[in-house]
UniProtKB/TrEMBL annotation:
Every CAAX prenyl protease 2/Lysostaphin resistance protein A-like domain range: 88-195
Enzyme class label: hydrolase
Protein name as annotated: CPBP family glutamic-type intramembrane protease
Gene Ontology biological process terms, A to Z: CAAX-box protein maturation; proteolysis
Organism: Shewanella zhuhaiensis
Highest taxon listed in the record's lineage: Bacteria
Ranges annotated as spanning the membrane: 46-66, 99-116, 128-147, 159-179, 186-203
Any GO MF annotation of the entry: endopeptidase activity
Alphabetical UniProt keywords: Hydrolase, Membrane, Protease, Transmembrane, Transmembrane helix
EC number: 3.4.-.-
Length: 204
C-alpha cells in the first residue's frame, strides 16, 4: 500500500513538473483552484469524454469477444471468479491509472520527445503528443501482464497480445482526451469504459 502511494505521489510530482511545459494538465481542477468558471471547462470536456468512454468500452467488449476463443481457459475462468468490485474498477482504473499513466508517464514522455526533437521555445508538435500516447499506452498494456500471469498458468502469445492491445486501445483514447481536453476527461472516459465493459460482461 505504501509503495503504491509513493508511486502515485511520484507520478503526480512528475506530471506537475513536466505537464505545464508541454501544455498538459488538469483544466477543471485548475479553474476550481483559480476561482474561474468550472462550468466552461466541464462543457468543453464532457461530450468528448462521454463519447470516448463509450467508444472505448464498446471496442474493448468487441475485442474480448473476438479474442476469447484463443485465450487460455484458466484465464477466462479466473477472470470471472476474481473480477474486482465495481468501485475498485472505477476508482483505481479511472483515477489511479490515469494519474500514473497519463498525468505522470505521458506528460514526461511528451516533454522528453519535445526536448529531443524541437528547439527550445517552439510550440509542442503533435508528433510529441502522439508518440507519447503510443508509448504510454503500450506500457499501460505491459503493466497489466503481471495480473494476467496470476490468472493464467501460462502467458501464451495470444494472451500477451490480448492484454497489451486491449489495454492500449483504451490508453490511446484516454491519451487523446488528456492531450485535447485534460486529465479529467481521460478519467471520466476511463470510468465510463469500465461501466460499458461491466454491462457487456452481464450479457456475455
Amino acid at each position: 500500500m505504501l509503495q503504491s502511494s509513493l508511486l502515485v505521489l511520484a507520478m503526480v510530482l512528475l506530471g506537475d513538473w513536466t505537464g505545464p511545459k508541454v501544455k498538459l494538465g488538469t483544466p477543471v481542477i485548475d479553474a476550481l483552484l483559480a476561482g474561474d468558471s468550472v462550468a466552461t471547462r466541464l462543457k468543453a470536456m464532457l461530450l468528448p469524454a462521454i463519447v470516448g468512454g463509450i467508444l472505448g468500452g464498446v471496442l474493448l467488449v468487441a475485442f474480448f469477444a473476438f479474442s476469447a476463443p484463443s485465450l487460455p481457459a484458466g484465464f477466462l475462468e479466473n477472470g470471472r471468479e476474481f473480477s474486482p468490485p465495481i468501485y475498485t474498477r472505477l476508482l483505481y482504473g479511472g483515477i489511479t491509472e490515469e494519474v500514473l499513466i497519463r498525468y505522470g508517464l505521458m506528460s514526461f514522455f511528451t516533454w522528453v520527445i519535445y526536448r529531443l526533437s524541437q528547439k527550445p521555445g517552439a510550440e509542442t508538435g503533435a508528433h510529441c503528443y502522439l508518440l507519447a500516447i503510443l508509448l504510454s499506452s503500450i506500457l499501460f498494456g505491459v503493466g497489466h501482464l503481471p495480473v494476467a500471469s496470476l490468472l493464467s498458468v501460462e502467458l501464451t502469445p495470444a494472451l500477451i497480445t490480448y492484454i497489451i492491445i486491449g489495454n492500449s486501445i483504451l490508453g490511446v483514447i484516454a491519451g487523446l482526451l488528456y492531450w485535447r481536453r485534460g486529465l479529467e476527461a481521460a478519467i471520466l472516459a476511463h470510468m465510463l469504459a469500465h461501466l460499458v465493459m461491466i454491462a457487456g460482461e452481464w450479457f456475455m
